[in-house]
Specification:
about 300 residues; alpha/beta; Rossmann fold; 2 domains; eight-stranded mixed β-sheet; three-stranded parallel β-sheet; 9 helices; globular; NAD(P)-bd_dom_sf; Methylenetetrahydrofolate dehydrogenase; THF_DH/CycHdrlase_NAD-bd_dom; THF_DH/CycHdrlase_cat_dom
Length: about 300
């Protein structure tokens, strides 16, 4: 590097971390299990993707899913539906197809358009996916179990519930950070003493992530555009006297997931030794600024 472009200097203890290093052992485990199936003469699992919109992000996500499946030895079949009204029928066909092991639906399809039952059409479709095929953990049974801290599908505790994948990836990142998770404590208390702020309350990321971290003992502030809630001790409280700034300033972990290009988390809200995770497709934080804060660890989930 030339003298005109010297390497960036970060504050003591500050670091930028590639989340791919956290994902690597999990992907290796998948490849290993798929290889064992093939050695036994069993076909690898089949994941079916349902795409019924022209949203560029959804199309890109579908492409990445296919590439990841190929790399890991999983069969992948993308089914494109021209008319969104036909998605439910295609979904039911996939649910009933004995060849299909997993289903992923690329949203948005109808957005916030209401269904006859009062929920959005997209929510209705999420609940139509059989729990036996739901690889995203977004169907009603898995969501209900998550919010009640029920970790198994069956009474015998032989089959774990599937957790929402993006939220779970954040948990796995935090588990890899020694100062975030304390595995010496009992299950349900691994994050005891941690204060977390999540700036996102979507059903896909922010809401389940808040529940998962609270289930592990953290106090979690959930921030949406017009309200703040605190998950703590198995209870949910609406916070009238808190602001996004006050929540972030008391947090040891901050997760950003604001789907707007213009949003930036003010760096002066972040205290020393904070772990920052960005799950948005936009840069919600100024990386160079926050890495001038001593001890800050910054992670980005790449899709």
């Amino acid at each position: 590097m030339s003298a005109a472009n010297p390497p960036k200097q970060y504050a003591p203890g500050a670091r930028k971390v590639d989340a791919g290093t956290t994902a690597a052992p999990f992907r290796e485990e998948v490849r290993s299990q798929v290889a064992k199936l093939k050695q036994s003469g069993i076909e690898s699992p089949l994941l079916v993707g349902l795409l019924a919109n022209t949203d560029p992000a959804a199309k890109k996500y579908a492409e990445w899913t296919g590439k990841a499946c190929i790399a890991d030895g999983i069969r992948y079949e993308l089914r494109t539906i021209e008319d969104p009204i036909d998605v439910e029928a295609a979904l039911c066909d996939a649910n009933d197809d004995p060849r299909v092991h997993g289903i992923i639906v690329y949203y948005p399809i109808f957005g916030q358009v209401e269904s006859f039952s009062g929920e959005s059409q997209d929510d209705y479709l999420r609940d139509t996916v059989s729990y036996k095929c739901d690889v995203e953990g977004l169907c009603h049974q898995y969501r209900s179990n998550l919010y009640r801290n029920i970790r198994f599908v069956d009474r015998e505790h032989t089959k774990k519930c599937v957790l929402p994948c993006t939220a779970l990836s954040v948990v796995k990142i935090l588990e890899s950070v020694e100062k975030c998770y304390d595995k010496s404590k009992p299950i349900g208390r691994h994050m005891e003493g941690q204060v977390v702020t999540i700036i996102n309350r979507s059903e896909i990321v922010g809401r389940p992530l808040a529940a998962m971290l609270a289930n592990d003992g953290a106090e979690v502030y959930s921030i949406d555009i017009d309200s703040i809630y605190l998950f703590s001790g198995g209870r949910l409280h609406k916070c009238e006297g808190e602001t996004p700034e006050s929540c972030v300033k008391k947090s040891s972990i901050v997760v950003t997931g604001v789907p707007t290009k213009s949003y930036r988390l003010p760096s002066n809200w972040i205290k020393e030794d904070t772990t920052v995770v960005n799950v948005a497709s936009f840069k919600n934080v100024d990386e160079d600024e926050i890495l001038q804060i001593p001890g800050v660890s910054k992670y980005t989930l790449l899709y």
